């Protein structure tokens, strides 16, 4: 019967590195989503103000 191979440590190191990259990618995407949400909110507020000024004049 062959002895089990000793690749367990390499597997866990790979899982740790892959998990770290996944966490970084997730956090970067959440920051991008937050920036998009803030930009959309600012755009809506500005357009609402412009629309209010436009309808007040006409």
Question: How do the helices and strands line up, and which of them pair or pack?
Answer:
Layout: H1 8-57
What does this structure look like?
With 58 residues, the protein is mainly α. It has a domain at 28-58. It has 1 helix and no strands. The chain has one helix at residues 8-57. The radius of gyration is 26 Å and the shape is rod-shaped. It starts with 7 loop residues before the first helix and ends with a helix.
Annotation keywords:
58 residues; mainly alpha; 1 helix; 0% strand; rod-shaped
Global outline: rod-shaped
Q: What Rg, in angstroms, do the CA atoms define?
A: 26 Å
Per DSSP, the total helix count is 1
Largest sheet features: none
Mean pLDDT comes to 91
Distance N to C terminus: 90 Å
Strand content: under 5%
Helix/strand order: H
Structural class: mainly alpha
| Total count of strands | 0
The proportion of residues forming helix, as a percent range, comes to over 70%
Oligomeric composition of the shown chains: single chain
Low-confidence stretches: none
Short description:
The chain is 86% helix and 0% strand. By secondary structure, it is mostly helical. It has a domain at 28-58.
């Amino acid at each position: 019967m062959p002895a089990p191979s000793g690749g367990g440590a390499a597997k866990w190191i790979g899982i740790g590195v892959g998990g770290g990259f996944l966490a970084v990618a997730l956090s970067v995407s959440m920051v991008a989503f937050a920036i998009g949400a803030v930009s959309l909110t600012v755009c809506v507020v500005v357009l609402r103000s412009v629309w209010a000024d436009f309808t007040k004049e006409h």
